[in-house]
Structure formats: C-alpha cells, structure tokens
Amino acid sequence: MALSLQELLQAIREVHDDVRQQVIAACESHTFEELCGEATAAAGDTVYAIDRVAEGALLAGIETKIAANTPVVLIGEGVPDGQIVLPKGIKEADAKWRMIVDPIDGTRGLMFQKRSAWILTGVAKNLGPGTSLSDIELAVQTELPLVKQHLCDNFWAIQGQGAHAERFDRFTNKAKPFHLQPSTATQVAHGYATVCNFFAGGRDLLGAIADELSHRLLGGNQQSEARVFEDQYASTAGQIAGLMLGQDRFVADVRPLLADAVKKRGGTLAHCCHPYDLCTKLIAEEAGVSVCLPDGQPVDVPLDTHTDVTWVGYANGNLQTLIEPVLIAVLRDILD
Description:
This protein is α+β, with helices and mostly antiparallel strands and 336 residues long. The chain contains nine helices and 15 strands. The strands form three sheets. Strands 4-3-5-6-7-8-9-10 form an eight-stranded mixed β-sheet. A five-stranded mixed β-sheet has the order 12-11-13-15-14.
C-alpha cells in the first residue's frame, strides 16, 4: 500500500536525520580542501565532494524507506540525469508522488564551516511533467549545522496544516518543538532586507536595485545612516529560514530578470535559483510568509533542475503592501 502524506513525512524526516549524521561526520573528519575537492558540473549547479556524501545518503534512504513501499519520481541535484523513477522498472506514469530534493543547499558555506546548510525535500502528487512548485503538498527542511554548533533546526509542513519546527540538540540527541514567528514589523528600517547578489555576473545591476529600493523606502537621505541591513546568505533555504524565524523582513532573488541586460553587454548571467532550491517554500507560506514573483503572482515553475527561478519573500502582508509596488517600479526603471 502506498505511503500516505503523514507516513511520507515521517520517512523523509528519518532520511534527513541520516543524511545530517553522515554529513556532520564527513565535516568532522575531512579538511576544507578535501570537502571542496572533485568539483564537477551537474544538473543546475557545481557539485563538490561534500555534496557526494549527502547525495549518496539521501538517495539510499529514499530507496529503502520510501520507494520500497511507494513508487516515486525523484528529481533534483545528485539524482542521475536529474530525474529517476524508483523503484527501478516502474513507469513514470505509475508513480504516486513526485519528490524534488536538494541534498545540500548552501554547500559552499558548509564545506568551509562558515554557515549552516540545509537538506530540502518537497512532495507533490504525480501530475506528470507539468507538476509544479505550487503542487507541493509536503515539505521538509533540515539544518546541516557547523561542526562547532550543537543545536540545529528541522521544519516541515503539510499543505493546510500549518508549519512545524523542532530544535535538535546533538549533545542530548533530543528535539524540542518551537513556534515559527516571522517578523511583524511594518517597515524595513533597522531590519534585514536583502537583494540576493551571491555570484559574479550582474552584480552592479543587483547593487543598483538594492540601493534604489533602499533609497525609495527610506525616503532619500535617510539612507546615510546604516538603517537597513543585508545578509548575503548563499542558500535559498537559509534565506527562507530567516524569513520564517523572524530574522529577515524581505528577500528578493531577481537574478533571472537580469538575463537580457547582461547578455546585451556580452556578459554571462550569474548562477540562479532553481526549483529544488525553493521546494520548501510551502513551510514558509504555512508560517505566514509570502513567497511570490515580484508582481505578487505565484511562483509556479515545473519541478526540474534547470529552470531559473525569480522569487520574493515578505515576512508579512504589511511589508508586502509597502515594498511590492516600490520593487516593481525599481525593477522597471533599472532593467527596462
């Protein structure tokens, strides 16, 4: 009998726990250079040695704890050719669920022990190749902590049932639930509001967007003070976590919108967000965060490994009402 959403949730959380243990062990026993070695190009991103650890553990866990009971279409980084059907021999049309995964979102920060990374899984009914991010009914996001860090978070949600969170203590091997509370602020002043600008390729344009947005939101010369802060956390999941935890008020990742402008001047567009990076947005939405396109429309892209994704996150509706029309105007003025 096929696993239900609740059974899938439990199985995915167990798989994520196994991946976390193996990745922590690898980080404890290898040097930075060893963890970033063997870099190769893969579906949607560069893959490092530490990615291979997580990919192997995640794939093995899904095969044994999920696919053995329920046929699935598995999509994501570390998956052969970006997509496979499990168990082997099953036709794609006969799978009940489509699962999109990112074994490590935030690899670069984790392998140099700068910041936590995240394991991501989103699950949607198998509606064929047209299945999209908006069809995801279950999402699980698990923190991969730094070696020196003993607490790490787990988030999950089933559509319509709210967001849930636990904080796991590696010393006691116990977890305590806690409440996700996005910011209730109505202004960006004295808070974190970020336009993502992680990699080379269009940084001047992204910087101009961030500066002009700040200028208009703060009212001109008020930006002479350090009144809006920015956090270039090179992990979409990390940015989503910041919105859910009340750390960030606004995040905009508009890198794909720069494609034409960068191409016209002979440049190359920076690496962009992909659907697997944003596959846990359901958790944020269930917690009250708005994740949408710059014009407020849903982020509705197929579950694949190559589509470049633009997204904007607002901690609450008041901030969206304040920022969205200004963002639209700034993007028009700078990119048109």
